[in-house]
Fold:
Amino acid sequence: MLDAVVLAGSPNSGPLRECSKEVNEALITVGDRPMIRYVVEALLQSECIRKVVIAGPSIIKEMFPDEAVEVVEANGTVLENLIRAFSAVNRTRRVLVAACDIPLLTPGAVDDFVRQCREDDIDFFYPIVPMVEIKERFPAITRTSVKLQEGTFTGGNLFIINPEAVARCAPLAENFIYHRKSPIHLCRLLGLKFVLKFLVNRLSIPELEKKVSELLGIKGRAVVTAYPEIGIDVDKPSDYSIVSAYLDRPA
Structure:
């Protein structure tokens, strides 16, 4: 079983401000509860997760009196908060990292992703979701996507990371995190060859894995998941409206 970290330090200062006046994005109510509750409950119900550490404001601890949840005060960049949260997990094993804004996440989606990430020599597993899965289950949702040789994919919001590898790639990783929703910017980080191949839809998953691993100095692997819940985050008002309506539906 793995420990999990939920990144919940982002202030509500972006587009979601028009949907909620909460100070922190993780506390914005979607459906009938704060976004972070859906994520943490899915992790706690997973068969593959031992404990959950939240990097966020201390007030979040009041929502989770369960001893399996620990809160580490977030006070910095995404990467700085992640490293701070690693102090509360078992650093001898890989750690699952989740965004706080994926309220559609299910225990089954978590279990499937973890079970696909069994290779011992990989430092970083990153999920990619076929857009056909998104459109089939959630046709109104729009996602940033990339057309590769193997199909059209959007990035997921769960990761499995070797904590010991983070320090080796921290400076470049910050850049990748900052540009994570802009495929063309990410390709620019990889070099002109990748920009050109991206523009003509000739990039492949193995090419991207190899180049990113070389740049970051770690071994990475893309994992194709058929669970669209992993690829749907709430970061703009249109997402908020669609996901709220879905969560408000009768069971």
Summary: The CA atoms of residues 59 and 214 lie 40 Å apart. The two ends are 30 Å apart (CA to CA).
